[in-house]
Amino acid sequence: MGCSHNMLGIRGVLDYVMSHLNPDGKSKIPLGHGDPSAFECFRTSIHVEDALIEAIRTGKYNGYSPADGLPQSRRVVADYLSRGFPYKLSEDDVYLTCGCSQAIDLALSVLAREGANILLPRPGFPQYEALMAYKGIEARHYDLVPERGWEVDLDQLDAIADSNTVAMVIINPSNPCGTVFTHDHLAKVAETAKRLGLLIISDEVYAHIVFGEKPFIPMGFFASTVPVLTLGSISKKWMVPGWRLGWLVTCDPHGILRKSQIIEGIKKLLNIVVDPSTIAQAALPQIIKKTTEDFDQQTLQLLSQAADICYDRIQKLNVLYCPAKPQGSMFVMVKINISSFVDIRDDIEFSAMLSKEESVIVLQGSPIGLKNWIRVTFAISPSVLEEGLDRITAFCMRHAKNT
Ligand SMILES: *Cc1c(COP(=O)(O)O)cnc(C)c1O
């Protein structure tokens, strides 16, 4: 399986894990992918649903939208993302996309050129590797260090970047680590990128999904040090990934991206790619304005409890280990103490057997860069999560060496 896995993306890898499900087995528990919307407790806010219905009822949004997105919606995103920034984004900095996925695709496409390479986090989000392979961009990996709360290995950035390195990707809050970078650490990342002459692609699809002591700090905050392409969407915070609406935002107070033709490149690409649905775009201002504190607090509280349950129960098993308690996003990385198992050789076997025997789906670590780790999502209803952890516990006890 090995290397071809890198090209599958998360869905492809999970298809592989699920192909081991026993049809006569227990009910499936999806701890693999991050889509909590299937659970009633994570249903989006009524105001979000109303915003879309109202957009439809106006009858004004049945047509195509401008290539960059509806101006009023771009403006609202600019204001929303500028909160707390040392400068203000304008609507011209915002391009609406089909989810954060298309924003990733556009950011990579506009940077693709002969010989170029981009620095990616390891562990990371395999869609980057897969898209870069298609675009002929070389992927180089820098490590997130578990012993340091999954912070970026800054020295390694220096070691792997060269004159063909055009950008680095940072994912904050982190998928798959569940960590949130501090202001100080992000400042150091920005300084390093500046010194190396890179721009930063900041995947903030989990922006504001934080429930530990660290606040979420947008990378755009440091855009006067280094230009930033901020990527985001309504998929995760508002729990509507099926609506396919996101954004690519150029945080470029010194006009560096403009001078280097990157903005022109983005505009050209947007003329030829598919646009996000106009009704979803039209609903965006109300989605952002009307989501109540209540909804945010409620979701964050649920995620926080779920993260605690997941972390505490895994730490009790001496064959699995989480180096850091999740403080954001919906995931945690779990290390498999593989030498403690009798008949499981690696993470690929671990996840396939867990799927077969217990109908619990987890993402293997290998395809996201870490062999003998798994990624677990805790963004599911608490009772199902508990059941999933019970089954993981039983599975581990069955396969661990007697000590
Ligand atoms: C889910 C996810 C995306 C894709 O977001 P969509 O808005 O659903 O396209 C991008 N990056 C990361 C890190 C994600 O977890």
TrEMBL record:
The modification N6-(pyridoxal phosphate)lysine is found at residue 236. One of its GO terms (biological process) is L-tyrosine catabolic process. Residues 27-392 form the Aminotransferase class I/classII large domain. InterPro entries: Aminotransferase_I/II_large, PyrdxlP-dep_Trfase, PyrdxlP-dep_Trfase_major, PyrdxlP-dep_Trfase_small, TyrNic_aminoTrfase. It comes from the Eukaryota. The keyword Protein transport does not apply. Keywords: Pyridoxal phosphate. Pfam families: Aminotran_1_2. Its cofactor is pyridoxal 5'-phosphate. CDD domains: AAT_like. GO terms for molecular function: L-tyrosine-2-oxoglutarate transaminase activity; pyridoxal phosphate binding. Belongs to the class-I pyridoxal-phosphate-dependent aminotransferase family. This is Aminotransferase class I/classII large domain-containing protein. It comes from Picea sitchensis.
